[in-house]
Amino acid sequence: MTTRERIIETAIALFNEKGTKAVTTNHIAAAMEISPGNLYYHFRNKEEIIRAIFDQMDAVGFEDYEQIIAEHPAGSLAAMEETFLMIQRFNWRYRFFKRELTSLILSDPLLREKHLRVHQAMLRLVRHSIESSIAQGVLRPMEEDELGLFAEEIWLLTLFWLNYLEVGGEAVTDSTLRRGNELVRRTVCCRLTEEGARMLGRSGPAAS
User: Fold this and answer.
1) How large is the average pLDDT for residues 7-17?
2) Distance CA 154, CA 57 (A)
3) Could you say which of 18, 38, 65, 163 is the most buried, measured as most Cβ atoms within 10 Å of its Cβ?
4) CB of 102 closer than 8 Å to CB of 95
5) How far is CA 171 from CA 95, 134, 165, 175, 182, in A?
6) End-to-end CA gap in the chain
7) 192 φ, ψ to 5°?
8) What is the pLDDT of residues 151-182, one digit of tens each?
9) DSSP letters along the chain, please?
10) Predicted pLDDT at 204
11) CA–CA separation, 93 vs 51, rounded Å?
12) Kindly report the CA angle at 33 between 38 and 107, in degrees rounded to 5?
């Protein structure tokens, strides 16, 4: 691992533990046992480190999704559920960013621009997944307005499920992640075709 990579990983760990406001570049350098000057050779300030972390998040998220699609067809129920669980584990790895999302992007115009591009790309990806499900006969056809709202509903639930757990005082566990997946199932259920309902039944019964 290069020094630059170590800085990023150390910063992630400290930000997750203490939050970005409580951590300075000197804290990161001290945790790594390197001089502040060595850190500044790679990053001029904390904002640059946070942007680099976001770039890593973008790359890691895309790679993880590609692995899911390699195993499950895009738009399949299995792909939807595996993607939800992947994003929750991803969000937990970078939980400081989820906790501080609004303040981070509002205080840094460059980060806000990066985030907006990724957010819009992910919303398009969700929409494409829904359209693939419709084409496969898993979901019923929808009017344009309903399709757009459904995509936002799925993305909103996926994006902020961990925030919901934490503000409610719940631990992030396999059980609470499965509960989030069950919410996705229930959101999808009312739009399934008969074939889609049979597929969902084969993949596991929904909780009553």
Assistant:
1) 98
2) 20
3) 65
4) no
5) 13, 35, 7, 9, 17
6) 48
7) -75, 145
8) 999 999 999 999 999 999 999 898 998 899 89
9) --HHHHHHHHHHHHHHHH-STT--HHHHHHHHT--HHHHHHH-SSHHHHHHHHHHHHHHHHHHHHHHHHHHS-TTSHHHHHHHHHHHHHHHHHTHHHHHTHHHHHHH-HHHHHHHHHHHHHHHHHHHHHHHHHHHTTSB----HHHHHHHHHHHHHHHHHHHHHHHHTT----HHHHHHHHHHHHHHHHTTB-HHHHHHHHHH-PPP-
10) 52
11) 16
12) 60
Mean per-residue pLDDT for 46-60?
A: 97
Q: What's the token pair of residue 147?
A: 């399709």
Which residue is it, tokens 């203490």? 18
Type of residue numbered 157: L
What six digits make up the tokens of 196?
Answer: 């889609």
Burial class (CB in 10 A: 0-12, 13-18, 19+), 151: buried
- Predicted confidence (pLDDT) per residue in 91-135, tens digit: 999 999 999 999 999 999 999 999 999 999 999 999 999 999 999
Q: Which amino acid is at 31?
A: A
d(CA 19, CA 96): 6
d(CA 53, CA 19): 14
The mean per-residue pLDDT over the stretch 16-30 comes to: 97
- The larger pLDDT score, comparing residue 73 to residue 145, is at 145
Give CA separation, 182 vs 51, 135, 142, 159, 176, in Å: 33, 23, 22, 15, 10
